[in-house]
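In this section we turn from sequence analysis to structure. A common task in structural bioinformatics is to predict how a protein folds when a small molecule is present, because the ligand can shape the pocket around it. The inputs are simple: the amino acid sequence and a SMILES string for the ligand, here zinc ion. Study the lines below before reading on.
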Amino acid sequence: MSSLDITFLGTSAAMPSANRFLSSIVINRNGTLFIFDAGEGMQYNFIRARFGFNKKILLFITHMHSDHILGLLGFFQTLSLQGRYMPIDIYGPKLIYDFLTENFRILNINLSFPVNIHVISDNEGILVTTKEYKITYCRSNHGYGICSYAYCLIENSRPGKFDIKKAKELGIPEGILYHMLQKGESIQFNNKLIPSNTVVGPLRSGRKIGISGDTRPSNELCNFFKNCDLLIFESTFGSTELDKAKESFHSTAFEAASLAKSSGVYRLCLTHFSTRYKDLVVLLNEAKSVFSNVDMAFDLKSISIPYRN
Ligand SMILES: [Zn+2]
């Protein structure tokens, strides 16, 4: 059993408002922090959320627009002043390398910890693979000449349910034989071959979290986000600003909800709102008209994602 909690550090689009900072989302999985974008000021809410300064951090940048990256330098400097020693791996479009190395040089920044920069160049692939999960990416559509990516954290399947009652009925003693069966191995017991699936159910899927970054909806993303337990999708505009959404390569709440429905996601959370909306109920209602399991992000909102099977 692993914990999986999402915290929004910033939920505003383009510029901050009185109660919203700029884009940044943290997935905390068992104490490892996956941070998606670092909009200006994200470190304030990072501190408020009390994540601590020396956790394992992997950072993913969706695209090189200032409202998604200007918080990086301040964040890194604060971590450094707090004596961080753990390295940070950061993944993003090619310009993230130039942005960081040039700013480190100009501002004479010498951090207390290493920053490993990984440039993404393909349209789709896997960035990180471990025994427990992987991080995948897919090119999104945020305008001509803008290299932008969406990301997913996908947990590996878990072993099936172990039927202790059945194992006891068969007289199998607890210990190494249970362990072998749980691992999917067949065992010899009382001169009989007992396959694992006699007492162990089918594999149970892990959880999947999707993060859109800024984008128009697309078939590629619809496919990429298939069956997410939680999809976090930008909804900069409402339907009355559909033309604006198309012009600026953003999405409306209705479009985000339509994509969530087509992708078969379980839960949708909308974020990245234009400051023109003083009340987001209009956007929420537009989304709800097509997909009911939807809510709106706000700064420091936290969501725990349970297993669904
Ligand atoms: Zn953007």
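The longest helix spans residues 95-106. As an exercise, try to locate the residues that line the zinc ion site and compare them with your own expectations.
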